[in-house]
Amino acid sequence: MAVTLLDTRVSPFGMRVRIALEEKGVKYEYSEQDLSSKGPMLRKVWNNKSPLLPSNPYQRAQSRFWADFVDYKVYFPGRKTWTKKGQELEAGKNGLIESLKLLEGELGDKPYFEGDKLGYVDVALIPFYSWFHGYETFANFSIEAECPKLIACRMRVYLNLFQIHKKSMVFWWS
């Protein structure tokens, strides 16, 4: 059965789905959409290949927590860095830095958030890596200076995914 992905290229949430499908080796057809008039989306679960969530219920809950953290504590403050000015921009920048530092602490010295393999939290965060330059440009700061381990992880993830999938890095943000 073929999978059709209804998406828009600028959506970090749609990018998560593209990453997950690539990671699972699921062939799919990309269909650019106006997301304000969504149609039904089909999903197929592959239990035996590249599970994105841990089998342990506690670890699974932690992964969901951190992915939700990314949705709210990276997306919204990050958005303020390019949509707001003055104090609101600074609040967004500071909130983003604080959130990225927490994520960096959770990552620790592991190659991925869930250890030795790409997981749900990585899939949640990877789409935002392509926005880092914009955050830095609009808010005049360096994520690498604030969170060097997270940036090292970003580069490692890009290289690993490129080697596995033999796709141009443009795939991840275009």
UniProtKB/TrEMBL annotation:
Q: Does the keyword Manganese apply?
A: no
Give any Gene Ontology cellular component. Answer: cytosol
Q: Does the keyword Cytoplasm apply?
A: yes
Q: Which SUPFAM superfamilies match?
A: GST C-terminal domain-like, Thioredoxin-like
Q: Which residues form the GST N-terminal domain?
A: 1-78
Task: Enumerate the catalysed reactions.
Answer: RX + glutathione = an S-substituted glutathione + a halide anion + H(+)
The name under which this protein is listed is: Glutathione S-transferase
